[in-house]
Amino acid sequence: MGTQTKIPSWAAGLSGARAVVTGASRGLGAAIALALAEAGAHVLAVARHAEELEALAAHHTEIEPWVGDVTDADFVAELAGKDIDILVNNAGTNHPMLMEDVDTQTLDRMLNLNVRAAFLVAQAAVKSMLEHGRGGSIINVTSQMGHVGSPKRTVYCMTKHALEGLTKAMAVELAPRGIRVNSVAPTFIETPMTKPMLDDPAFMAFVTDMIPLGRLGQPEDVAAAIVYLASPAAKMVTGTSLLVDGGWTAR
To answer: What sections of the sequence does the record tag as coiled-coil (predicted)?
Structure first.
């Protein structure tokens, strides 16, 4: 098992918290699960691939693998029955293509995972949090593309703008019941999902030129933002989007 990391004082309130991270087998999700575990939470790491989850769990004693599909109704029903303090709604996908080339299968696949499943997973977590009466924190992983537009990303931008809207509406509705809802909106992060795109030198040049800091983000950059929003340090933060974008959207 991995070495236990000292919990930062501002995140100490996560000790013993119960967290669920979807899309946790690799990339952003794996980094988020590990960061929450290192901050003291017990993490249910959700993904479809058992081997990758087992490899992740080997890094920390507080990570518990949960093989499941967020688009499956049985998984959502089971989630509602868990005891949840923190949900990180991270599962999602992207298929960049020109708008005129988008087929209905791609459209439906992205809407189903990025919007419909995200809503249903959040709804299940809310039911759990309300039942247990301790409040909670829900963090939707969106994208800088939920704030701007970009070529070959009409469907992706649409889904992420939808998730940003859901975040604000949930935050307003659930604040009186002690549940905070925020989003984290990353720029291009070096992950297995982005690697095929970033391997194109022309696209890589476009991305780095658009980021004022001049570099790609790392999964740990996003994980740090998640831990902050889940922690007591963010107790007055709800309904906002924390942009981890190196300045992309500041232009």
So the answer is: none
Which residue in the list 152, 156, 228, 235 is annotated as catalytic? 156
Concerning whether 156 is annotated as a catalytic residue, the answer is: yes
DSSP lists the bridge partners of residue 45 as: 21, 65
Cβ pair 151, 100 in contact under 8 A: no
pLDDT per position as a tens digit, 188-202: 998 888 888 899 999
Catalytic residue chosen out of the listed positions 6, 82, 127, 160:
160
Q: Which of 163, 209, 167 is nearest to 188 (CA)?
A: 209
Question: How confident is the model over 228-249, as pLDDT tens digits?
Answer: 999 999 999 999 999 999 999 9
Which of 91, 88, 23, 86 has the alpha carbon at shortest distance from 52? 23
Cα radius of gyration rounded to whole Å, the chain = 17
